[in-house]
Every structure is written in structure tokens, then in C-alpha cells.
Amino acid sequence: MAIRTTSKTSLFLMELIITILFFSLASTVCIQLFVKAHLLGEETIIQNHSIVIAQNVAESFYQFDGDIDSMCALLGGTSTQMDSFSLYADTQWNPCEEPDAAFITTFSLTKEDSMIYGEIVIKNIEKVSEVYSLSLASHIPQRSMTNE
């Protein structure tokens, strides 16, 4: 009767295969995390730029008491209607013309009694999605003309 001894190389090969499988799974998870972190970073940059643009429009709204023409002149916007205007920006958030735009900021104005309401909406043209929006309200005091 012949006694067979099993080789230890097959056990080593099996351990090596399991180790390679473990490291490949771990590297796949790490790569997915890096991709998600990169995409989240890009979204954060877009969000931050949108907030700055919306703040600029909001400050001009309060400064000029909702005067569309003055706001357009200050911000370099394109007046689309009597009570609204648009600002266009490229992928680097530099002001540009409509054909080259990646982002559009629209401002619309409504008036009720002694209140002025504004709505700022920033959209990503390429993804057709809203990035940021801000609602504004301002009270315009009535000035009375009295003779003293």
C-alpha cells in the first residue's frame, strides 16, 4: 500500500488566491469611495458658487428696492421680461452669453401692496436641474408728502 502525502503547495496556492480575492474586493470598495467623494466635491463647488451668485442678486434686490433695470446694469444680466432677468455663466462660473452658458440664474419680481417679492433660481443647463433657489421679500415704506 502506497501512502500519499499531500503537498503543502496547494494549500499555499489556495491561501494566495483567497488573499488576492480579498484585496481586489477591498480595492473595488476604495475606488467607489474615491469616485463618490470626487462627485460630492464637484456638487459642493457648484452649490457654493450658486450661493454666492444668489447672494449677489439678493443684495442688489435690497439695494435697489427691486428695480430690475438697475439690477441688470449692476449684475450684467439680460432682461427677459418687464419683471425678470437672467444671468448666464459658463462651467467656470464666469459671466458669458446664452449659447456658451452652463448655468442660468433667473430672477423674477412680483409686487403686492407695499411688498416686493423676488425669486432667484439657479439651474444647470446641461443636466436640466435646479441647483439652488432663494425667495426674497422686502417692504417698501410709503412716503407721504406733508407740508411743514
Protein model, in words:
The radius of gyration is 30 Å and the shape is rod-shaped. Helix content is 43%, strand content 28%. The protein has one domain (12-139). The longest helix is centred in the first third of the chain and has 56 residues, at 8-63. The protein starts with 7 loop residues before the first helix and ends in a 9-residue tail after the last strand. It has two helices and five strands; from the N terminus they run ααβββββ. By secondary structure, it is α+β, with helices and mostly antiparallel strands. The chain has a five-stranded antiparallel β-sheet with strand order 1-2-3-4-5, covered by helices on one side.
Strand content: 25-35%
The main sheet orders its strands as 1-2-3-4-5
The helix fraction, in percent, is 40-55%
Number of strands: 5
> Can you tell me the overall shape?
rod-shaped
Supply Rg.
30 Å
Poorly predicted runs are: none
Number of domains: 1
Q: How far is the first residue's CA from the last residue's CA?
A: 130 Å
In terms of structural class, how would the helical and strand content be classed? alpha+beta
Q: Determine the number of helices (DSSP H or I, runs of at least 4 residues).
A: 2
What does this entry show, briefly?
The protein has two helices and five strands, in the order ααβββββ.
Keywords:
148 residues, 43% helix, five-stranded antiparallel beta sheet, rod-shaped, alpha+beta
Topology:
Layout: H1 8-63, H2 68-75, E1 78-81, E2 84-89, E3 103-112, E4 115-124, E5 129-139
Antiparallel strand pairs: 1-2, 2-3, 3-4, 4-5
Helix pairs in contact: 1-2
